[in-house]
Each structure stands twice: as C-alpha cells, then as structure tokens.
Amino acid sequence: MKILITGTAGFIGFSLAKVLLNDGWEVVGIDNFNDYYDVKLKEDRNKILEENKNFKLYRLDISNLEELKKVFKENKFDKVCHLAAQAGVRYSIDNPYVYADANLVGFVNMINLVKDAGIKQFVYASSSSVYGDTSKVPFNEKEDVSKPISLYATTKKANELIAYTYHHLFGLKTIGLRFFTVYGPWGRPDMAIFKFAQQMSKGEEIPVYNYGKDMKRDFTYIDDIVDGIIKAIDCDYDNEVFNLGKGDPDELGEMINIIEKHMGMKAKKDLLPMQKGDVLITYSDTYKAKKMLGYNPKITLNEGIEKFVEWFKQYYNIK
Length: 319
Prior knowledge:
This protein is an alpha/beta fold. It has helices spanning 11-22, 39-50, 65-74, 91-94, 96-116, 151-170, 192-201, 222-234, 252-263, 287-293, 301-315, and strands at 2-6, 26-31, 55-59, 79-82, 121-127, 173-179, 182-183, 205-208, 216-217, 220-221, 239-244, 250-251, 268-271.
C-alpha cells in the first residue's frame, strides 16, 4: 500500500510514518519544515524516516497548489492522511495569516486533489479545540461546536465542514480525527510536557496558567494516537468525526509532579492568569471511536511521561 502523509516532519506525522514504514507500507511525505518550533528537531525526525528505502519526501508548502499538483502527478496513492497544519492556539492570535494559508488554503488544496485523483478516502487531523470553552464534559462528537474561541479552532471546524461538503457533493469518504493533547518521545516543544521538561532542565520557571487551579487536560500518548489513526485509515465509513483522546483528564498539578519525579528535579513555577483562547478542561468521550474503530488507549500519564523523559534526556544528552 502507498500512502501520502502530510506533515511527516511534525510530531504525529513522523510517528505515524515510522510505524507504517515498519509495517511495510510505502510512504510519501510532505513537509515545509517551517520555524514555528526548532527546525533541527524536524530534520532529525526526517533523518530517521529517510533511513527507510520506502520513504520519499517532498519539501513544499501545501498552500502552494502547483507544487502540490506535482506530487499527485508523480505518484498513485492508495490512501491519504492529511496531518499538516499550523498548530497552536496562542500563536494563532498574533499570526492569523499563517493559519489561513496552511489550515484553510492548504486543506482545500489537499482535499480537492484527493478528489480529482479518484482516491476514495480522506483522513485528516481535526482538534479538540473545536469544542471551545464548554463546561459540558466529556466532549462528545454530537455536541454543537459552532462557537470556537481561537482562530486555530475555527480553522479546524472549517476543515470538518469542508470535508462534509466534499462528501455530500462528490461522495468522498472523509474521516476527521479530533486529537486531545498528544505527547511523547519526539513531541512538540511548544506543548506543556515538553516545554516544562526543557525549562526545568535549564533551571527556568515554568508558566502555570490560571494560577494552577482547576486546569485539566486529556493527555494522550502518541502510540495510542497512532493506533487510532491507523484504525481510521483502515475503516470504511462515509463521513465521520472521531475523538482520539485518553478519555480520562489529568490535573495540571499532577502532570507537573510526574515530570518532577522522572526528571529528578523540582519545578520553579510562574503562576499566571488564564490565557486568551485557552480552556480550563479538555475531556474526550471516546465511546464512538472505541465502538466504531476499535480504538483502545492504554498508556497512563505516568507511563507516558516516563517514556518521554527517557527520550528527552537521551536526545538532549542530560545526565
């Protein structure tokens, strides 16, 4: 099987590509290696993928339609998994145009080329951010998500609407995956677990929002997420959206305690007010994904952070 994965230098795209390559898939990757976070980390992920003869990379921006057309002209894909996007809730407040290019123009480019190529299914990344600042937990896929509170979330909700439209108009099978706070080895440095470990290792203060009160996140380990994506790629539904989370949120304070334990050091905390576009809790209802995909997240926060810290210390040569 030959699959196109966008965002293969990113955390989730890299992790998915690595598993599929090990399973004997032929993987074509796309990434623009932007500098939203450390480009060296992206290059190091890519080096691992390029060790496999069944991996081929295109360095391009998905908002560039002409460049993207060449990829589809030069390859015949059995499957497509679109994970490339401009990530980050807070970053979207100050950099709106980047999100319009990557998450809207890029998404339309991808889904339209998939349709034109006659590929039957389009699997894409959505986000738990679409739920906005709701107090109704756990977050269920049937809930109204028409009031996002960040531009990033708005673009992800728009992606789901565009996917529905393409299913309705052209019969394209579309599967959207709402990811919940993904972490693990080779993760994103802008995400809390990675960022806190990095700041602690340098003796810097860690920013703790809402003064550390009542903040909970549905921290989901990367292996569980990849397993869910592969199950989505293998499914045959017409037009669905699934939550991919652990289904059991953890308190921010507990997450910090676990990092301290495995890093072997105490965190210096900078207690700050709530940030614009942020929410108090994320909590996935995973019933639908379990029932329809066979999704079954297994890794606890303690196990996941232990695995992450082991990788982190090795990658940054921390004793």
